[in-house]
């Protein structure tokens, strides 16, 4: 999705500026949230909460999904959609904004200057760290909205206000340190693989 959007937003020299990179990242994040992330994350969070409860009711993955759909319909796999769209949209917007900015800085006046995978990895880790600090509060809200106690919240805004009232501002940054280590490594690896796959595809299937 990012490639599709960025191909329509590059200038005559093939450059993608930081602002357009942010918008393309936002579009990619929203598409990712609706098509993939929301249903997968909802099921994952429900499973985690169920397995840590005194009397787990899901016997396995397929049984759990079947029970969720039977009890709540397909809507049950799309809990917290607004929070997920906000989280994934801002997540990818921040990552691609930082990554595009660093790439443009590194390449200078030559948009076709090759990048060493190691440098791509370092830039990816920085982009990952920026996204953690930028949207951990939205991640906390999203997780609460998808859990087994999501019924306590009327909507995404109400969830955020209840967390703030009952637990304070620090609650929005729970799990930041472990998430930071995982996300930095994750994003670094993803961007390295992403760049290498794009290079390979450009050789196998050249495009204008």
UniProtKB/TrEMBL annotation:
Membrane topology of this protein: Multi-pass membrane protein
Gene Ontology CC entries for this record: mitochondrial membrane
GO biological process, one term: mitochondrial citrate transmembrane transport
Superkingdom as given in the UniProt entry: Eukaryota
Name the UniProt record assigns to this protein: Tricarboxylate transport protein, mitochondrial
Example of a GO MF term: citrate secondary active transmembrane transporter activity
Chemical reaction(s) catalysed: citrate(out) + (S)-malate(in) = citrate(in) + (S)-malate(out); citrate(out) + succinate(in) = citrate(in) + succinate(out); phosphoenolpyruvate(in) + citrate(out) = phosphoenolpyruvate(out) + citrate(in); trans-aconitate(in) + citrate(out) = trans-aconitate(out) + citrate(in)
Lineage: Eukaryota, Metazoa, Chordata, Craniata, Vertebrata
Purpose of the protein: Mitochondrial electroneutral antiporter that exports citrate from the mitochondria into the cytosol in exchange for malate. Also able to mediate the exchange of citrate for isocitrate, phosphoenolpyruvate, cis-aconitate and to a lesser extent trans-aconitate, maleate and succinate. In the cytoplasm, citrate plays important roles in fatty acid and sterol synthesis, regulation of glycolysis, protein acetylation, and other physiopathological processes.
Transmembrane segments: none
């Amino acid at each position: 999705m990012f490639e599709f959007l960025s191909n329509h937003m590059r200038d005559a020299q093939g450059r993608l500026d930081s602002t357009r990179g942010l918008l393309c990242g936002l579009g990619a994040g929203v598409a990712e949230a609706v098509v993939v992330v929301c249903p997968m994350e909802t099921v994952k969070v429900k499973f985690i909460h169920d397995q840590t409860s005194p009397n787990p009711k899901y016997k396995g993955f397929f049984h759990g999904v079947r029970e969720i759909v039977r009890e709540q319909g397909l809507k049950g796999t799309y809990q917290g959609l607004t929070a997920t769209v906000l989280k994934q949209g801002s997540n990818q917007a921040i990552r691609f904004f930082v990554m595009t900015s660093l790439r443009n800085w590194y390449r200078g006046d030559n948009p076709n200057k090759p990048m060493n995978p190691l440098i791509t990895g370092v830039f990816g880790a920085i982009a990952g760290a920026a996204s953690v600090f930028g949207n951990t509060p939205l991640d906390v809200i999203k997780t609460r909205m998808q859990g087994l106690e999501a019924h306590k919240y009327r909507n995404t805004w109400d969830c955020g206000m209840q967390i703030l009232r009952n637990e304070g501002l620090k609650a929005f940054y729970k799990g930041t340190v472990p998430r930071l280590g995982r996300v930095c490594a994750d994003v670094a690896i993803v961007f390295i693989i992403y760049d290498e796959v794009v290079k390979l595809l450009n050789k196998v299937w050249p495009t204008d």
